[in-house]
What does this fold into?
Amino acid sequence: MVDPNRSSWSWRHVAVLGSTFFAGVLIMAGLAALLVNIQSHKREATEFPLKLVQISATELDPAVWGRNFPREYDSFQKTVDDTIKTKYGGSVPFSKLERYPAAVRVWAGYPFSVDYNKARGHYYALIDQKQTKRIQVVQQPGTCLNCHAAEAPQMIAAMGWENFSHTPYDELKDQAHIGTSCADCHDPNTMELRITRPAFKNAMAARGIDLSKATRQEMRTYVCAQCHVEYYFQGDNKLLTFPWDQGLTIDAIESYYDKIGFKDWVHKDTNAPMIKIQHPEFETWSTGIHAKSGVACADCHMPYVRDGAVKVSDHWLRSPLTNVNRACQTCHKQSEQELKDRVIEIQDRTAALLRSTESALIDAIDAIVAAQKAGATDADLAEARQLHRRASMRWDFVFSENSTGFHSPQEAARNLANAIDYARQAQAAALRLTPRQ
Amino acid sequence: MGLGAFTFTYAKGYSYLSNDPQACANCHVMRDVYDAWNHSSHKAVAVCNDCHTPHDFIGKYATKAYDGWKHSLAFTTGAVPEPIRITTLNRQIAQENCLRCHGDLVEPISHIEDTHPTDCLTCHAGVGHSH
It folds into this structure.
C-alpha cells in the first residue's frame, strides 16, 4: 500500500530535474554559441578579398588600395627602380636619339626628333610625361593624359570625351597628380580586372569583340592593351583612336590610315606625309607564338611570386630578363643562361635589321632631298615620298616597340625586310629623278 | 558468368580497384608515363589516383569505372588516340586535385568562384609526369 502522507516528490527528484534542467541550459547555451560562431565564419567567408579599408569608387591613390593589398602595392612601388640595365631595354632612361642617331633624321620635323628616351617604370608614367620636351616644343592636347594619368577617366566623365581631348595639355596637367594606379586595371570592390580607358573599348567594339565576354586570361592582356598600343588623334577634337578596324598588323594599320588619308606630320627634309607609330606592344605580341599559345602580358611581366604562404601576381612590372626563373621557367625548362641567350639572339638580329633599315631610310631621305634640289616636282616625287612613308612606318613599328623584336620575332623581321625594300625603292625612284653630276 | 569472371581476372580488372601505380602501368602505353612520374617532383607525395581520381568514395570508384570502361574499349579496338590527350572531365578532376593540396597557397590567385578560374595545368602540366 502507498503511504498517502508520503509526498510525490523527493529531494532525489529535485536533484534529477534540476541537473537535467541545468544540463539543458548548458547545451542550449553551447548551441547558441556554436550558431553564432558558424554565422560569423560564414560572414567572414563572404569578405573575400579581406578589406581593411573600403576603397571608394573614385579612389585613385595606390597607397590607399595598398592598405588592402600590401603585397601587390609593395611590388608595384618597386617600379621606382630606374637602374635596371639590359642589353636593349631595362629601366634606365637613356636617350634613344643619342644611342640611335639615325632616328633624329627619320623623325625630322616631329617632336620625337627632339626628345625620346627609354621609358622608365610605371611609377614614372606621369612624371616623365610632364618632363619630356615633346610637350614643350609643341602644344599637345589633353588627349595625352588618357594613358599617363590615373585621373583621366574621371576627367573624361566630368568634361566629356571631346572637351577633355581638345583642351590643351598645359591647361589640364595640374589636375593630374597620379600616374599609373591600381584603379586603371582593377575594380575597387571585387579587384576584378576591368577596362577603364574609352579608346580601347571603342577599338574593340569596332572590331566586333565583346569585352564583357573576355576570359580572365584575355583580360590579363587587355588591361595592358589600354595603353601599350599604336594610336592617333582623330579629327579636330583630337580624340584618342586606335587604327585597328582592319586588323593589328602594320599592313592593316597602314591600310586604315591610307583609307582616311591620315598623316601624323610632313617630313622636314622629304616633305613626305608620314605616320608615327607609338609603342605597339599589344599589336606585335598578337602575331607571336606566345599569343597563339594563350600566354598573356601578365604571365611574363607580372608572374606569380610566392610571398610567404601565398602566391600573388608580381606587380613590379619590368623586363622579364631580370626575372627569368619566374617569368620563363614555369613553362620553359631550359637553364636561365640558355633562355637569356635565346632572347638576346632574337634581339641582336632585330637590332641588326633595324640598323640596316636606318641606313636604307637615310639613303632614301638623302636621295629625295637631292631630287628636290635638282628640281623634281611634287608629282614627280609622289611615288618616292609614298615609299618613304611606307618604309618609315614599318621601321617605327619595330623601333618604337619595347621588346626589340622579342614579342614576335618573325613579324618584326618581316616588317623590317619590307621597310628596307620600300626605302631602297624610294631611293631608286628619287635617283631616277636626279640627273648624274 | 564463369567465363566472364575468368576474363575479368585474366585481364587483371581487379587491379583497377587498387592505388598502386604499377596497376596503371599494366598497359604498356602507360610505361613512359609511369617512368616519368617516378622521376617527377610529385613522386613521393602522389600516386596516379591522387591526381586522376576524385577523393570522395563514390567519385573515386565511379571515375575508375568510367575510365576503366574507356580504357578497355580503346585497348580492345586498338583505337588509342595518338598522342593521348586528357579528356575535359579528367582535366577538371586533375585541376581540383591540384587545389586539394595547394589551394591555400594559391588562394589569392585561383579565383575558384569565378566563371574563369585560373587553370593550373596550362603552365604546370609537367609536375606529375612529362608529356
Notes: The mean pLDDT of chain A is 95. The longest strand of chain A covers residues 304-307. Residues 103 and 424 of chain A are 17 Å apart (CA to CA). The longest helix of chain A spans residues 336-373.
